[in-house]
Amino acid sequence: MTTLHLKLLVWRQAGPHAAGRFVRYDAPDLSPDMSFLEMLDVVNERLIAQGEEPIAFDHDCREGICGSCGLVINGVAHGPMRGTATCQLHLRSFRSGQEVVIEPWRAKAFPVVRDLIVDRGALDRIIAAGGYISARTGGVPDANAVLVPKDDADAAMDAAACIGCGACVAACPNASASLFAAAKIAHLGLMPQGQPERPERVLRMVTQMDMEGFGNCTNIGECQEACPKLISIDVIARMNRDFLRASMFGGEGRVTGGGEA
Amino acid sequence: MPFGRFWSSTIGKKVVMAVTGIVLVGYILAHVTANLLIFAGAAAIDAYAAKLRTLPLLLWGVRVVLLLSVVLHVVAAAQLAVRARAARPTSYRRFEPQASNATSRTMRWGGVALLLFLIYHILHFTTGQAHPAFVHLAPYHNVTTAFRVWWVAAIYIAAMVALAMHLYHGTWSMFQTLGIAHARVNVARRRLATIIAVLVPLGFVSVPIAVLVGLLR
Ligand code: HEM
Ligand code: FES
Asked: What is the pLDDT of residues B79-112, one digit of tens each?
């Protein structure tokens, strides 16, 4: 079996307030069938065996659906494979002998917790500000009681594919969270159930996004390329439209945001 | 929502940039068309300049709207740029752009270049301080004497390259900012932005080039 030998350059940072630095690790004898995170597991086992601190990185499902993982690999959020989260990236996307630079998401709103792990609580607070619908509890309605046009259902589904990983922020030269916020706004705003709170939702979520210290959108499109679900920046135009309409006509002006930034 | 709160949001500022961008693009289309009158001869363009002076309300109306647009456009751009810089305090050791291009990445510095050019251009052809042989209300004379100096022509040609780049991303971007994006219209707005970004600067540079090669004298 052919094996792979990677030369890693990894961001190490002991804690939120510690100074970080890049550290070189040699990673020989890797299988091309390993996932990128399995490669880090192997490197970590070797580090532990040597009595060193393992490299901290976020992960959970390892099947591209939870949004926990996320690394900037050789200057690309989630690495070289388009439409793929870091956990679904495999070493066959790399050449043996290649240098691989691994960095955490970089944004003021995403402070580093340790090594490659960042705190993405800012995204949770954007959701808390308005990324929900207020549904009555009670009996489950019949499946087709509320009719949804097929095109709307499809577009809502595309937007709902967002796993909240934050790659859009990481890839954006302005560290903007527009694609994330816009995906949530589109996903709810395309559904009949999302209509009552639609003006308030966009005003509150955008206000919260600004409060968290994300940059503005310059329509550059890096986010949609980095998105593991390839969500289109068309949803950002939709958010802008909702924001404009709500600013002019809608919303009671209770633009308070969802919590402390 | 009161304008103050709208303006304080990132989307509000971008909307202001897009609306003022439309005003500026609209003006620039009229400007380039009028400039081409120079190829109809000195009499035609000088008469056009004289005619504008008989319509002070139009002239000053346009000037006020343009000044206001430029100020709002630049202030919003500057504030957003400061904000965006602060949003990424630590930059990447390695960053490989996947989707952006030279035009979308240079909007800010290109905008600064355009602003500097704008100031020079007004001092040069409108008020005349930057023109050694300026004659009020004689655009044909002013333009032809100016562009015989190669480096003056070069400044204008370079500025129009900057304008082409700004328009290529800007014209496309303003639709996105105003909420107009859909698979059905995206191709059309890309095409419109390309046409404007090519034709407008070409129209402008045709004048210094015509002077340089001796077509206009
Ligand atoms: C010839 C005059 C100008 C024209 C016709 C023009 C046109 C435009 C247009 C149409 C946009 C798109 C707005 C949007 O994305 O929503 C734009 C964006 C922008 N302009 Fe200008 N502009 C001009 C001058 C300037 C100047 C003087 C500056 C700065 C000093 C500037 C800086 C910017 C910046 C930073 C953007 C933002 C790009 C983005 O967010 O995608 N522009 N411009
Ligand atoms: S670990 Fe769940 S998406 Fe990658």
From this structure: 999 999 999 999 999 999 999 999 999 999 999 9
Backbone angles phi, psi at A10, to 5 degrees: -115, 140
State the Cα–Cα distance between residues B3 and B1, nearest whole angstrom. 6
Chain A interface, mutation test: which of B5, B11, B104, most A Cβ atoms within 10 Å?
B11
Both structure tokens of B8 = 């304080």
Residues A21, A12 contacting (CB under 8 angstroms): yes
Judge whether residue A130 has pLDDT over 60.
yes
Q: Tell me chain B's radius of gyration from C-alpha atoms.
A: 19
Tokens of A53: 């601190």
Contact assignment for A209 to B180 by CB distance below 8 Å = no
Domains of chain B by residue range? 2-212
Separation CA B204–CA B183 (nearest Å): 33
- Per-residue pLDDT averaged across B5-31, rounded? 97
Query: What domains are there in chain A, each with its CATH number?
Result: 4-114 (3.10.20.30), 120-248 (1.10.1060.10)
Which pair of tokens denotes residue B30?
């009229």
Look at domain B2-212 and name its CATH class: mainly alpha
Which helix (H) or strand (E) segment holds residue B163: the answer is: helix B150-177
Q: Outline where DSSP puts E strands in A155-211.
A: none
Torsion on CA atoms B56, B59, B64, B67, rounded to nearest 10: -150
The ipTM of this complex is 0.93
pLDDT classification of B3: cutoffs 50, 70, 90? confident
Q: What count of other Cβ atoms lies within 10 Å of the Cβ of residue A149?
A: 10
Cβ–ligand 1 contact at B78 (below 6 Å):
no
What type of residue is B154?
A: A
Query: Does ligand 1 have an atom closer than 6 angstroms to the CB of B110?
Result: no
Q: How confident is the model at residue A261 (pLDDT cuts 50, 70, 90)?
A: very low
Q: Is the pLDDT of residue A55 over 80?
A: yes
Q: What is the pLDDT of residue B183?
A: 86
| φ and ψ of A40, to 5 deg | -65, -35
Specify burial of residue A248 (Cβ count, 10 A radius: 0-12, 13-18, 19+). Answer: exposed
Per-residue pLDDT reduced to its tens digit, A205-230:
999 999 999 999 999 999 999 999 99
